[in-house]
Amino acid sequence: MRALRYERFGGPVEVADLADPSAPDGGAVVRVAASGLCRSDWHAWVGHDDSVHLPHVPGHEFVGIVEEVGAGVVSWRPGDRVTAPFVNGCGRCTWCRSGQAQVCPDQTQPGFTHWGSHAERVAVRAADLNLVAVPDGIDDAPAASLGCRFATSYRALTARARIAPGEWVAVYGAGGVGLSAIMIAAALGARPIAIDRSPDALRLALSLGAEHAVLAGPDAPGEVAEVTDGGAHVSVDAVGHPATLDAAVHSLRRRGRHVQIGLLPTDTSPVPMGRVIGWELDLLGSHGMAAADYPGMLALVASGALAPESLVGARVGFAEAAALLVAADAAPPVGIAVLDLGRD
């Protein structure tokens, strides 16, 4: 199979011919139709994730067709059109059995713990737990974006922050995750505000449902407070940086809720705890979404309230995908780029 591969952290990302994966017991092999390009792939390439072993094939959000199932799989057969969350639960532990596979202690993640979906085929563990049927009405490119950015944002806003119609939601970062959060908040009747350093990203955010756009900088929390008459009910850091974490917390009204989606560079990033305590703020982490929680998000898509295709930007082949992965830490392209395996 063709795939993107790198042999050292920070080294060249090449298009290589590799052996096809085999379906593990209880798992499946999916023939990939499209695979979303995500900044998390850049973090893995740089060496920020200790679960990655070299040589490596990145990619963790995809859609495709089941090609092979392993022993013990009962819910899927070759020919089924599927996606999967980027966190794959083991299917055996207490967390998986209670529907919380996103915090499974024995989780696997295509593109991190094993070779991923920037390839013609990808293996998925515990297929009965982790695979999700994709409705025919969702095209490949937007379907590929659901497994990481939309799913992560959906669970962060619904299961963690529990946003309500009419609440202000301040979203720091208008990349793939942040724009997904803005679209979901708007679809659920909340009032999203986009904060980003890119005017182009802010214009896109406004077109996707943001009520206000604020240019990132030292004055951003004050601007959010002014627009919302005292601060947002919910803040989201979709970037993962000490500065955006601090600004997002300071954008909240008293008794507000902050959700951290963006991965921070260290576990010691400072949190303004004086504000958290004095204003009785809630700090919430959110780590993807289990397959069991997909029906609510897919129902929003089916209703037309959520249109993931609006966020799809470039559709690229393998060579361009390799270049985009390496450059992902620079100013990102507006919207989501997707490796379209039908292009090569």
UniProtKB/TrEMBL annotation:
<dbReference type="InterPro" id="IPR013149">
    <property type="entry name" value="ADH-like_C"/>
</dbReference>
<dbReference type="InterPro" id="IPR050129">
    <property type="entry name" value="Zn_alcohol_dh"/>
</dbReference>
<dbReference type="Pfam" id="PF00107">
    <property type="entry name" value="ADH_zinc_N"/>
</dbReference>
<dbReference type="Pfam" id="PF08240">
    <property type="entry name" value="ADH_N"/>
</dbReference>
<keyword id="KW-0862">Zinc</keyword>
<dbReference type="InterPro" id="IPR013154">
    <property type="entry name" value="ADH-like_N"/>
</dbReference>
<dbReference type="InterPro" id="IPR020843">
    <property type="entry name" value="ER"/>
</dbReference>
<keyword id="KW-0479">Metal-binding</keyword>
<dbReference type="InterPro" id="IPR002328">
    <property type="entry name" value="ADH_Zn_CS"/>
</dbReference>
<protein>
    <submittedName>
        <fullName>Zinc-binding dehydrogenase</fullName>
    </submittedName>
</protein>
<feature type="domain" description="Enoyl reductase (ER)">
    <location>
        <begin position="2"/>
        <end position="339"/>
    </location>
</feature>
<dbReference type="InterPro" id="IPR011032">
    <property type="entry name" value="GroES-like_sf"/>
</dbReference>
<keyword id="KW-0560">Oxidoreductase</keyword>
<dbReference type="InterPro" id="IPR036291">
    <property type="entry name" value="NAD(P)-bd_dom_sf"/>
</dbReference>
<feature type="transmembrane region" description="Helical">
    <location>
        <begin position="169"/>
        <end position="190"/>
    </location>
</feature>
<keyword id="KW-0812">Transmembrane</keyword>
<comment type="similarity">
    <text>Belongs to the zinc-containing alcohol dehydrogenase family.</text>
</comment>
<keyword id="KW-0472">Membrane</keyword>
<keyword id="KW-1133">Transmembrane helix</keyword>
